[in-house]
Amino acid sequence: MQTKTTSVPKIPPLNRLAGRRIVVTGAGSGIGAAIAQLFISEGAKVAALDRNEAGILAWMKSGEGIALSMDVSDETQVNDAVHRAAQAMEGIDGLVNAAGIANQDLLSEVSLADWRRVIDVNLTGSFLMARACFPYLNEVPDSTIVNLSSGQGLQPFMRRGAYAASKAGVISLSKTLAMEWAPIRVNTICPGAVDTPMVRSGYTEEVLRTQVGSRYALGRVAEAIEIARAALYLTSAESSFVTGIAMAVDGGRSYH
Ligand SMILES: NC(=O)c1ccc[n+]([C@@H]2O[C@H](COP(=O)([O-])OP(=O)(O)OC[C@H]3O[C@@H](n4cnc5c(N)ncnc54)[C@H](O)[C@@H]3O)[C@@H](O)[C@H]2O)c1
Asked: Please, are residues 220 and 3 in contact by the beta-carbon 8 Å criterion?
């Protein structure tokens, strides 16, 4: 397949999150940083969380939001950060769980420590964040949770066993929360390959552009803003009757 060079269209902000207070994890890089910035441009108050606070401070302008350093896999740090975010924003209307780590081991070779770390951050971290935010989300109308799974959670590759299991778990976690916590809406995004530091650590730019991009019907990998727009849809009133879905945002990979 020929690699296409399609530019990502610009969309002007429409104030779709005016007055909403959203916690975004993984906001120090890649997709989480794109989501936090898009949400601020759409009128939200944002608490940006990451274990790498410097990554947040690299894009956040003074007074634009609050930056908190924390580890999503540590229950005490999660509870403390969510409490501080709720105090600073005077409540929480939404959560986006974008913090995550990858692994590239065969299941016959992955160490138990690496397996546990991937599950702890990607799956348990999403659960801990949701649980800590629940009391705040439960006392306001139209609250939302968006969890970042992956195309790997729908259709795993070899050498991604722990990651794929954690991301399939995120889909299942989200569906259960959507039932147990309704009317809080809980949805999952399953991105294909996105050009972020996570993916750049596994592929050269050339391989990303040609070999990886050619796996997708659209012939390219995504930009982080294209995933952020899906998170915006699922967080805004535009998706008011959507809950419990696993939305593939993958340039047409998972349907064939
Ligand atoms: N990039 C892709 O191709 C792709 C595809 C599908 C799904 N995803 C998922 O999207 C999410 C964002 O990925 P990305 O590509 O932007 O990655 P990234 O590596 O660019 O950013 C991930 C961020 O999460 C933070 N983080 C990691 N572990 C943490 C922890 N324990 N506590 C707090 N913060 C932590 C990192 O510091 C980093 O800022 C992840 O959940 C990832 O699995 C990414």
From this structure: yes
- pLDDT of 1 reads 43
The contacts of residue 87 (CB under 8 Å, 6+ apart) are none
The residue-averaged pLDDT of 161-190 equals: 98
If you measure from the C-alpha of residue 181 to the centroid of ligand 1, how many angstroms do you get, rounded to a whole number? 25
Tell me how far the alpha carbon of residue 14 lies from the centroid of ligand 1, in angstroms: 27
Q: What is the pLDDT of residues 114-129, one digit of tens each?
A: 999 999 999 999 999 9
Asked, for residue 196, whether it belongs to a domain, the answer is yes
Burial of residue 143 (number of CB atoms within 10 Å: 0-12, 13-18, 19+): buried
Please name every residue paired with 187 in a beta bridge, in sequence order, or none if there are none: 146
Q: Return mean pLDDT, the chain.
A: 96
Closest CA to 25 of 37, 33, 17: 33
Task: Assess whether the C-beta atom of 50 lies below 6 angstroms from ligand 1.
Answer: yes
- Establish whether residue 55 lines the binding site of ligand 1, counting it when its CB lies within 6 angstroms of any ligand atom: yes
Enter the pTM of the model: 0.97
Retrieve residue 241's tokens.
């009757």
If one counts the domains in the chain, the total is 1
CATH number for the domain that contains residue 210: 3.40.50.720
Question: Who contacts 45 (Cβ-Cβ below 8 Å, separation ≥6)?
Answer: 20, 21, 22, 65, 89
For residue 255, being part of any structural domain is answered with no
